[in-house]
Amino acid sequence: MIINAASMESEVRYYSRLFPDIFAKGTGSYLYNKEGKAYLDFFCGSGSLNYGHSNPIMKNAVIEYLISDGIINSLDQMTEAKYAFMEEFFNVILRPRNFNYKMQFCGPTGTNSVEAAIKLSRKYTGREKIMFFEHSFHGMSYGSMSVSGMKRKALKPEYYLNTVQMPYAEHPDSIDSIRRHLAKCSTEDIPAAVILETIQAEGGMKTATREWIESVYQLAKQYEILVILDDIQTGCGRTGTFFSFENMDIKPDIICLSKSLSGYGFPLSVNLLNPDIDCWEPAEHNGTFRGNNLAFVAARKVLGYWKDEGLSLNIRISASLIEEYFRNHPLLRSLELRGRGVMRGVVMESEEINTRVQQLFFQRGLLADTCGYDNNVFKIMPPLTIERADLEKGLQIIGTSVKQLLTAEVSSI
Ligand SMILES: *Cc1c(COP(=O)(O)O)cnc(C)c1O
């Protein structure tokens, strides 16, 4: 069946190659193939299924909404479902944090929100340049690719004329490079915005420190550069708090959210805008699928998880279980474990070894993605709601597989 599918689907397909099975069902932390074989999911739709599969809290609300003939697509008309979602988002997420933002609905996917953020920054400042970081990833449409260090080798230089790349947090000279660059910019060369991730997920789970992010922010403010924080993968709880930068002293001008915003795998993206920069004219940036009401219904329901500390606590417990497992494991302890919360990357020696270990995970019933500019990092992204026994089971598969691979390496020398 996989072979037949390959004759129908473009060569661009990827995850069907990484996870070569036909999936039929998903419940909680598990996916199942047609025959009912279970796979533990540490991939989580690249962070778009943070609350697990078929989460009953959202599922029941969505079913009820469908049965009641609730409107499905509404562009940007106001609907009951959209209003209820916005109200809940302000009450549960924004107001308790004293965050003063307006919401822009951007079209269904993450890259739509990045495009909108770039466009608005250029309009607001009247300047063109966008600063971005080496090994960043912000999406696959042309504007987003032009600020994605991960994708630059795929683009001709003329596609990124109005951008400037800087070294990311791990580079000791990063802040000085930015400072030196800005000091020599002519007025029109000063960037309109800087776009950044707090953890470069696709770039290899490289994790910026609070100090680095605050320094970038302060430099940007000094030059009146807008700060676009791409929290598409790092947000919605992945790092332990709803936003990935909550313990930092920054106030981004635009926050991009998507992936797990609907909580159920429905496409939804928004930009949170500092109201002072909201200089859009009506309809200046539109799109047909900005009114995905099934997503609104689920997105409202999922916010119930953020009304108390329960989920944050579970994420912290899971995070320390992962750290402990690595610290106490005779082989894993020597590997570099990156990331925060339940957003982790493990650095392998080469792409080849990484690919082989990922295949061993799959054979043992564990789904995990790979990342990094050199594709030598594997990702650990379990659901935020995962139960302890399942997390431990996944960690054991990781331990056993790495051991099998590394001992085979040694004995083959
Ligand atoms: C996934 C992702 C995007 C792009 O989102 P799409 O829905 O795939 O367009 C942008 N930025 C980051 C950090 C992402 O992880």
Protein model, in words:
With 413 residues, the chain is of the alpha/beta class. The protein folds into 2 domains: 14-47 and 311-411, Aspartate Aminotransferase, domain 1; 58-306, Aspartate Aminotransferase, domain 2 (3-Layer(aba) Sandwich). It contains 13 helices and 17 strands. It has helices at residues 2-8, 15-18, 44-47, 56-67, 80-94, 110-125, 142-145, 174-183, 210-222, 293-302, 310-328, 351-363, 388-412, and strands at residues 23-27, 30-33, 38-41, 102-105, 130-133, 163-166, 193-196, 199-200, 206-207, 226-230, 254-257, 270-273, 336-340, 343-347, 366-367, 370-371, 377-380. The strands form 4 sheets. Strands 4-12-11-10-7-5-6 form a 7-stranded mixed sheet. The protein has a 4-stranded mixed sheet with strand order 1-2-3-15. The chain has a 4-stranded antiparallel sheet with strand order 13-14-17-16, covered by helices on one side. Helix 7 links the parallel strand 5 and strand 6 (163-166). The radius of gyration is 21 Å and the shape is globular. The structure holds pyridoxal-5'-phosphate.
